Amino acid sequence: MTKFVHWLSTHRTAAIIILFIYYALVILPHEWVGVNINALFSKMPRSSYDLIVLVVSSIFLVAVLFLFRKKLMIHPQRNKIGAFILLTLVLIYLTNSFLFVINIESVHYVQYAVGAILLFGLIRHYYVTLFVAFCIALIDEGYQYFYLSPHRTDYFDINDIITDFLGAAFGLLLLKTLSIKESGDASHKMKWGFFIPLVALILGFLGTVKSSLLSIYPSDDKFMLVREMQEGFWTTVPPKVTFHVVGPAEGSLILPGLFLVYYFAFRSEKTMKDSRTELT
Fold first, then answer.
1. Which residues of the chain fall short of a pLDDT of 50?
2. How far apart are CA 120 and CA 230, in angstroms?
3. What is the domain extent for residue 139?
4. Domain membership flag for residue 137
5. What distance, in Å, lies between the first and last C-alpha atoms of the chain?
6. At what angle are helices 2-10 and 107-123 packed, to 10 degrees?
7. Based on the structure, what is the number of domains in the chain?
8. Contact, 170 vs 85, CB < 8 A?
9. Does residue 234 fall inside a structural domain?
10. pLDDT of residue 229
11. How far is residue 177 from each of residues 59, 82, 254, measured CA to CA in Å?
12. What's the pLDDT tens digit per position in 14-34?
């Protein structure tokens, strides 16, 4: 994998093409894939279907962790990386337990873990890669919600964005175990590849809300993040599946919180050295 990431870094045009193909064939149509997989197992009881997906996902996760364990054990930051991998697994467990309708949604983790690895080969900055993966998740969910199935969903799916975020973070943590370093201009990429797009994203969102093109909750505006308010904290759908829908207000707290947590996981070595110098 290390050689492949370096190859992506030195063949940027090819990396962009690979990313475009991956996005078009793997990430964008994931709802269509999920619907068809569900249809394939439609005659099977939901509990059995969920159990099969859980077992397969668990085996796959254990296999991945097994493959990376040796690299992690010899890594100079193994305690830090190991702690964040453990934290990510805990967050994934909580997401699966409280935000999932069906276990096949675990495919988001794999899609965005692989996508983040491909992105890193092009960007060569961990935190900027995480932010770009987050932006891709926004585009992905926006495409589904506003265009692909506007009459089938009642809310912009922040649950899926959280899942995508954790998948991307997990993939980048795996890269960290391989001691793949960021490029030499990491601080420059942090400035231009994160803060400026972040400000543009916030201003764009506020502008659409201010212009009444987009509203957060049900209204007469053309686009709404929530078309129908959920009653109560828990939502129950057939066959008696209970989960929590993360609303825009919660998402505005959870997502920045996740970015803050993973800042400490992915901040560059140069940033840490500069911080130590200032303290001394």
1. 271-280
2. 37
3. 2-179+249-273
4. yes
5. 38
6. 50
7. 1
8. yes
9. no
10. 80
11. 20, 9, 26
12. 999 999 999 888 887 777 777
